[in-house]
Amino acid sequence: MTLRLPNDVHARVSALAEADHISLNAALVQAAELWATERARGQIVAYAVDDVMARRSELLARLRDA
């Protein structure tokens, strides 16, 4: 896999990886894992909100009008 980063991003990530005593590759793997986890968490939250809105719409309407 080839990843092309803008020079400034490469420099920042490289510096952070060096400060953490890990390779640039390890830093990018961690970043990708974090991004994937956050995306999955966001999808779960969106599903839960949609479910609550659908199943509790009457209650939410009463609360809104109270």
Automatic annotation (TrEMBL):
**Pfam families registered for this protein in UniProt:** HicB (PF05534)
Q: Which InterPro entries match?
A: Arc_rbn_hlx_hlx, Ribbon_hlx_hlx, Uncharacterised_HicB
- SUPFAM superfamilies linked: Ribbon-helix-helix
Any GO BP: regulation of DNA-templated transcription
Superkingdom of the organism of origin: Bacteria
The name under which this protein is listed is: HicB-like protein involved in pilus formation
